[in-house]
Amino acid sequence: MQAEDMEVPIINILNDNGDRQRPKGKDVFKDLQKESESSMESPNLEFEYGDTDALTAELSELYSYTEEPEFALNRDYFEEDFRSHARGRRWIELKVEEQKTYVMRLLDALEVTDRDKRLKVARAILYLAQGVFDECDTEVDVLHWSRHNVFLLYDMGIFTALLELLSMEIDNNQACSSAVRKPAISLADSTELRVLLSIMYLMVETVRVQTEDDRPEWRAAREAFKNELGSPLYNGEPFALLLFTMVTKFCSMNAPHFPMKKVLLLLWKTILFTLGGFEELQGMKVRGRERLNLAPLPEDSIKVVRAMRAASPPASAMELIEQQQQQKRGRRSRRSAFVDSLEGDSPFPKKQPLVKQDSLDTYNERDPFKNDDARDEEEDPEDTDSGIEGEVDPLDRDVIIQPPPPPPPLRPPQRRSTYPKASPGPLKEKDIEHFLETSRNKFIGFTLGNDTDTLVGLPRPIHESVKTLKQHKYVSIAEVQIQKEDELQQCPMTLGEEDVEETPTEMLYLGMLPNLSQYVIALLKLLLAAAPTSKAKTDSINILADVLPEEMPSLTILCACLLLHITVLQSMKLGIDEIIVKAISALLLLLLKHFKLNHIYQFEIVSQHLVFANCIPLILKFFNQNIMSYISAKNSICVLDFPNCVVHEMPELTAESLEAGDSNQFCWRNLFSCINLLRILNKLTKWKHSRTMMLVVFKSAPILKRALKVKQAMMQLYVLKLLKIQTKYLGRQWRKSNMKTMSAIYQKAEECALRESIEKFNSRRYDKNKNWEFAPVDNCLQSVLGQRVELPEDFHYSYEMWLEREVFSQPIQWEGLLQNP
Predict the structure, then answer these.
(1) Tens of pLDDT, residues 290-305
(2) Is 450 a member of any domain?
(3) Where is the sequence biased in composition, kind Acidic residues (predicted)?
(4) What is the DSSP letter of 342?
(5) Is the link from the previous residue into 643 a cis peptide, with omega within 30 of 0?
(6) What DSSP element (H or E) covers 355?
(7) Alpha helices by DSSP H, 62-138
(8) Does residue 301 share a domain with residue 180?
(9) Same-domain pairing of 129 and 227
(10) What angle do CA 560, 565, 568 make, to 5 degrees?
(11) Which of 179, 482, 658, 746 has its CA 20 to 30 A from that of 769?
(12) How far apart are CA 678 and CA 730, in angstroms?
């Protein structure tokens, strides 16, 4: 399957709302008023960013509400088999040795040829992994026994047996062909896959999470399981590659019955477990800098961001107008009262001079991102490149009011707040080179290229400045890796082969490299299908294969959801979309960060595949919505979530009961997804001129400015970083005359040069069958003639004809061998 067959369609984020005329007068006033109300009502979000949400939330997202009847089915199959073994006793009453004996019995039963019997045994194992909830009274007990049983199942080798069954189901061509022919996919088509993936997800997620009361044998089992998942023990490749294969088969329409939500969740948690989360990444970065003898990191960026406070969003034009008018009315009433007391009633009409209000112009000059949200959508269709700096709206530019005194400051002191900002940025070698180039041009009249050591002819203050800059210069691991790679390319004979450490990241990259473009495009296809701004298409992939039931929901649930003005399917669809976006965004961010730490060129090739597959406009399209509504959306029902639904009795389904238990003012997974996507966008565009130009071309500034309304420090920080890198490209006239030219130059020069470096790196390190020009040559005639050459089978039948045609019938001019060439 070629990468071109899976190309993600180019996303036009500029015409989502269609061609509309610019509203005038009252329409603009209403839009500004709505914007003002939404910005004033945005609350401070007490959100703590981390690798995952709480364990109960992560477990509940594994199941769809249509799978709820299967909880009782798992219990019934377990009790039916367990009753003959335990003789009236419960699972929690057995000793550990007795539990191991029963698990070994289940393991033997998994090897039967009868498909239905295997499924019943798998459901019994799933019930154990779910915590034998029928024998528990509280959710805490369910989680306790689930943890106990999961470590027991791993110790008995259940995961390896499940992996073999999963491989069989993936290669089941009969099920794939049957699903392709079906007009609609339902839960019944993926029953075996869902049961297997659910057990494996519970095992990975439960073992991954560390607790204070873990036993020593559990800690040892965690390390063993981690190494097992990250090593090429499963058919010579890591377990994550098997899940990547499921993703590509699903997106190529060859296996539409695959439960993609469960696959993506398991893939994300497998990568998180084997490679490590953000804290592990920070530790690996510190140890990596120590090995390279680099200066230690001054701070942990994640911890610094967590300590920041969110700022209020910038005041909209509507708020500013209302504040000014209130202040003017107060002063005008006092002034008119004073004048009337002096002059009395006058028979002549008083003049009302029209004074231009320039305060909003002053505000716009102070604010580098002055486009209003609504104005971006209402721009002239012909002006497609004015996303950063457009014309000031007439309502902002010429506000006609009457008071003669000069206007007071626009923003009251209490509204003047500073956005979260980090340090100005690390001082790099290029900054010193630029400083010396400017100084040499000024004092000497010529430059010395990249030479930062020669200071001849420069005044003494420049010497001191260069010394200070070098003392504070930041050298990244990526710069050292690039320098080492250049040396290996230039001196292959002297330096020899590179010793590559077989880390889990290295083994994962080596396995992904042959089909890397297919994996990236498949993930972006799923992200596009799950994006809330995506329009329904007949040819789009169906991500609800593991959600839709065979029959319509019961009338009771349907009526209850109608009380909430939603249907069951729509509620589940929104929840499934959010979970898929969460899993893909976290997965892509982890891959980018780990590959960048392992080797910069591994990060660059993944980044290029993302950029060429239109990841940048896709993320901008995602944010081109009411982001506050998305973050505050609640598409989960607490009383139906696991493990609450299996421990407590189901209450009467009413609007109040379905809304009970959810008091958060935001959805954790949606805010988590937004921050991840912003971090991915930052990583793709940082220090890349051509990709920064894409942000300008796709008019990202107004879209990102809307995201500043979310009062969460970490999200605001990454939004501001994206806005900051575009400031050098501001200027309407410059964009109109140079946009296409500069974009083409950067695209061809920068990306092609980077791609050439990446291909050289991959060829040098991973191409084992390369014809290397520096490889030693065998010059011994006997040795060369003694080598065994593999010939094709048909050669034995035609070799006599070949000898006659190519040897005997060709005259040999022996005299020519004696002549000088």
Answers:
(1) 999 888 887 777 777 7
(2) yes
(3) 374-393
(4) H
(5) yes
(6) strand 355-357
(7) 69-86, 96-109, 115-129
(8) no
(9) yes
(10) 55
(11) 482
(12) 21
Residue 427, strand partner residues: 473
Q: Identify whether residues 94 and 180 lie together within a single domain.
A: yes
Measured between alpha carbons, how far is 299 from 168 in angstroms, rounded to an integer? 48
Shared domain check, 296 and 182: no
331-343 pLDDT, tens digit each: 555 555 544 544 4
Kindly give the interhelix angle for 568-598 and 600-612, rounded to the nearest 10 degrees: 140
- Range with the poorest average pLDDT among 317-321, 379-383, 485-489, 587-591: 379-383
393 is written with which tokens?
A: 């709206």
Q: Max alpha carbon distance in the chain (Å)? A: 131
Q: How far is CA 447 from CA 442, 454, 464, in A?
A: 10, 11, 19
Nearest to 531 by CA among 13, 46, 107, 14: 13
Q: Which residue has the tokens 């296809």?
A: 525
Q: Is residue 310 part of a domain?
A: no
Number of domains in the chain: 3
Q: Do 546 and 261 form a contact (C-beta atoms < 8 A)? A: yes
Q: Is residue 469 domain-shared with residue 481, that is, in the same domain? A: no
Q: Decide: 621 and 533 in contact? Cβ < 8 Å.
A: yes
Boundary-marking domain end, from 439, 473, 507: 473
The secondary structure of 671-714, three-state, reads HHHHHHHHHHHHHHHCCCHHHHHHHHHCCHHHHHHHHCCCECHH
Indicate whether 131 and 190 sit together in one domain. yes
> Token digits for 557?
């649930």
Over residues 591-615, the mean pLDDT reads 94
Altogether, the residues listed in the chain come to a count of 821
Collect all residues with Cβ–Cβ distance below 8 Å to 152 and sequence separation of at least 6. 96, 99, 100, 103, 128
- Which amino acid does the sequence have at 471? Q
Q: Which two tokens stand for residue 179?
A: 């699903």
Output the DSSP codes for 493-526: HHH-S------HHHHHHHHHGGGHHHHHHHHHHH
Does one domain contain both 137 and 184?
A: yes
Cα dist from 779 to 342, 358, 532, 776, 782, whole Å: 116, 86, 66, 9, 9
Number of Cβ atoms within 10 Å of the Cβ of 432: 18
CA–CA separation, 337 and 279 (whole Å): 66
Domain of 283, in residue numbers? 278-305+477-498
601 in a structural domain: no
Give residues with Cβ within 8 angstroms of 470, minimum separation 6: 432, 452
| Residue in 221, 113, 203, 217 with CA at minimum distance from that of residue 162 | 203
3-state secondary structure of 794: coil
Spell 129-155 as b/e; 16+ CB within 10 A means b: bbbbbbebeebebbbebbbbbbbbbbe
Residues 76, 108: one domain?
Answer: yes
Tokens encoding 56: 């109960």
HEC letters along 733-767:
HHHHHHHHHHHHHHHHHHHHHHHHHHHHHHHHHHC
**Res 520 pLDDT > 80:** yes
Instruction: Please report the pLDDT score of residue 394 as a whole number.
Output: 31
Residue pLDDT, tens place only, 699-728: 888 899 889 888 888 898 899 889 888 877
Question: Does residue 677 have a pLDDT over 70?
Answer: yes
In a domain, 662, yes or no: no
